[in-house]
Each structure stands twice: as C-alpha cells, then as structure tokens.
Amino acid sequence: MLTPGVGSTVLLIRTALPGLGPRERAVAEAIVRDPRKVSGMGAAELGAYAGTSAATVTRACQSLGFDGFPHLRTLLVRDEGAAAQAGRTGKAYEHALHRLFAEAARELDSAPTTVDLSAFGRAVTLVGGARRIVLIGAGGSAATVLSIALRFMSTGISVEAPNEPALQLLTCRLLEPGDVVLAVSDSGENVSTLPCAEAAMGGGAKVIAVSSFPRSTLARLADEQLIIGASGRPWPESVLTSNLLQSFLLNALVAEVAKARQVGDKADAVYDDIVRVVTGNRRPGSPSADSSGVNL
Length: 296
What we know:
about 5% strand
C-alpha cells in the first residue's frame, strides 16, 4: 500500500498519469485538478465529477498504489491540513514571478519523497563502479546533462556527455558490460534518448533513467529509475521546475559517487587547477590569491 510523504500525494499521482488507461486517467486528472474539492467527495461523487463510475474510481486508486479511495482521501485531507498549517494555502501573489517561485519552492520541498531511496543507492553503486560513464539528454534535458557532466568532472570523475544525437547513439552502441548510461528525460519519451538507452542495453551496459514518470518508456526499459520532477503545471513552467529538480537529484548522485570513489583530495586539486587557469589566482583565501577574491 502506497503512503507518500506529507504534501506529496498529488505529486505522486501526477507522475503516474501517463501509464493509466483513459477512464482511470480521468479520475486521476480530476484529483490533480482540485484535490481539496475531491477530499470532500465520496467515490460516486468523484466518479460523476470525472465522467466515470465509482468502480472506476476504486480501480484508479488501486492502480495508483493506494488501498482504495478512502485511503487516498485521507491522504489528501492530511496534505491539505499540513499546507494550511504552514500558511501556504490560498495565498494570492501580486506578480507571476512571486507565484512561480512559491510553487517551485513547494515542489522542491515535496519532490524528494518521489525518489526511491533504494534505487538511488543502487544507482550510486552502479555509477561508482562503472568503467565508463555516459550522460545522455536532449531537448530541455540537454542543459541539465552538460551541467552534471561538469560537476562529475570537477570531482575528478571522467564522464562523457556527447551533445549531438548521432554521436550519442554511436557512443551508446559501443558500450559494454561494466559501463553505465545516465539517461535524462523529463517525459521519458524523447525520440533521441530512447534509442540510445536501447543501444546501451543491447551491448550489456546498465541504464539509469532520470525522469518525471515511472511508467514512461524510458523508465520501464531502464535497469534503475530515479523519478522526480512532475508538476502538472503548464509546459513552459513545468519543464523549468522538472529540470531544476532533476539537477538537484543528479548533484546528490555526483556527491555520493565521489564519496564512494574517495576522490575528495583529487577534486580539490582539480578545483585549484581550474581556478588558476580561468582566473590566474588560487582559491580565494589562499596565500597567493589577490585581493579581488575572484572565484570560479
């Protein structure tokens, strides 16, 4: 039986939307659209609200991992109460900028609860022991991948992040057992990323999917899935938040892999080398740093 962390019930339902059938998805979308209203309904009322039946409501809740609609309704009431206590319910914002940041902050607060910590631990083990690490991402995920590649390399861990579709596919086709691919795709359905994951697995490499949806094609075919980021908000806003959440998750992965590989001292040396090349100074505060305090 699924019991999500406080404040994350609706977020977890959003992540499951792509894998539901039409009628069950209508129920889930109704819950996501107005969880407060749904928390005061019975199964028959929700069925009518979603244009379906009470039996479909029960099946939808069970497909989502809940014991039934009463269980889900209890969680919605719990989350609403927690939000009200925190003073985050019904607040009006004077500007869209404030609203966007407030919604992103709420998602950052609850997003870690969607990550399977056991899967995260297994991902750390896979990447930490990999002979060759390849990062793949396209579209909105491309910038996230490049940023994380830099983070890996700044800790002294060599990775590859080809940024052209044909080169990504060629790289993945040449992978072998002992190699690992981190495939990042918000939707899990990117037409460039999926063939790369399939090619890597065909050669015996392990694939770790980083996506917003556990029932996406990428998540289903991967050896491990790290799920975080689904917001259900309009596309321009949701992609930005999803990428931010995935970046946080991957930064945590980098930190744990660096710890497992015991590359802390090497990372410090790499950092100093980069600072010297880019600024002509040592790390700020060191004896040879000038008064400008220039940092990388």
